[in-house]
């Protein structure tokens, strides 16, 4: 079961990693540049993992229009 990286704003699948690449040092080893607060790992019922992060497109939109995304989050 792979780990899926998904944008939590537009739900675009950013990529996949094999599950054996996840361990307690997962975040450090992968040198993830996203702020820790922007990153969520969901452990699915079937043993799969979904890492919710932000794609480059949303990241740049977020920097340009932070108010728009804050609003959208509340509506959802
Ligand atoms: Zn996105």
TrEMBL record:
A Pfam family annotated for this UniProt entry: Fin
GO-annotated biological processes: regulation of gene expression
Protein name stated in the entry: Anti-sigma-F factor Fin family protein
